[in-house]
Amino acid sequence: MGFSGFKDELAHQTIQNDGFFPDLSTLTLVEAYRVPPTFAVASLAVQLKLAMAWANRQLSGWKAQRQAEGHATLADVPADTLGGESVLAVYYRAAVFNECRALLVQESKVLVRRADAANVATESPETEAAYHEQATKALADLLGICRVRVGLI
Predict the structure, then answer these.
(1) What is the Cα–Cα distance from 35 to 107, expressed in whole angstroms?
(2) Which Pfam families does the entry mention (predicted)?
(3) Looking at the domain assignment, is residue 83 inside a domain?
(4) Using one digit for the tens of pLDDT, what is the confidence trace for 13-63?
(5) Can you state the angle between helices 41-58 and 60-68, rounded to 10 degrees?
(6) What average pLDDT does the structure give for the chain?
(7) 3, part of any domain
(8) Using CB atoms within 10 A as the burial measure, which of 7, 91, 113, 123 is most buried?
(9) Buried b / exposed e across 30-57, counting CB within 10 Å, b at 16+?
(10) Which element (helix H / strand E) includes 86?
(11) Does the predicted model carry a pTM greater than 0.90?
């Protein structure tokens, strides 16, 4: 046990994807995106599956086009690489993990706890919206479309 009272070793699950998009791990989500250890692995897995389903649905038309071009997986689609990994995979993972973080913010709001234990900064609607926005921007980057939006003034 660490000073936080949580196990130092994180259990994890790898969530199998649809065969085109990459499998994703709850451990990578926790480590790379600083998800607090207050969430059970089973809960992380459920929210990760929902985020993967969301991203896959958003990308279904794009995926069909890539498959029609003869690309069996996202890794087969020609793209620049960073650290030996396709930037498309980087964008996909960012989209899914940020959407998952938004879902976890929603989940943390319904946890029963003392009022003085609530962390307003991590549970606010603004935080949730920021994660949704980051997820949407990552999908836009993957699709190669402009991220700039014009809003009402």
Answers:
(1) 13
(2) Phage_GPL
(3) yes
(4) 999 999 999 999 999 999 988 888 788 888 899 999 999 999 999 999 999
(5) 60
(6) 81
(7) no
(8) 91
(9) beeeebeeebeeeebbbbbbebbebbbe
(10) strand 85-86
(11) no
Q: Are strands 85-86 and 14-15 parallel, antiparallel or unpaired?
A: unpaired
Helix (H, G, I), strand (E, B) or coil at 20: coil
Average the pLDDT over 137-152 and give the result.
Answer: 72
- How many independent structural domains does the chain possess? 1
131 part of a folded domain: yes
Q: How many residues does the chain have?
A: 153
Torsion angle, alpha carbons of 70, 76, 77, 82, to 10: -170
Angle subtended by helix axes 87-109 and 41-58, to nearest 10: 130
Domain that holds residue 31: 14-143
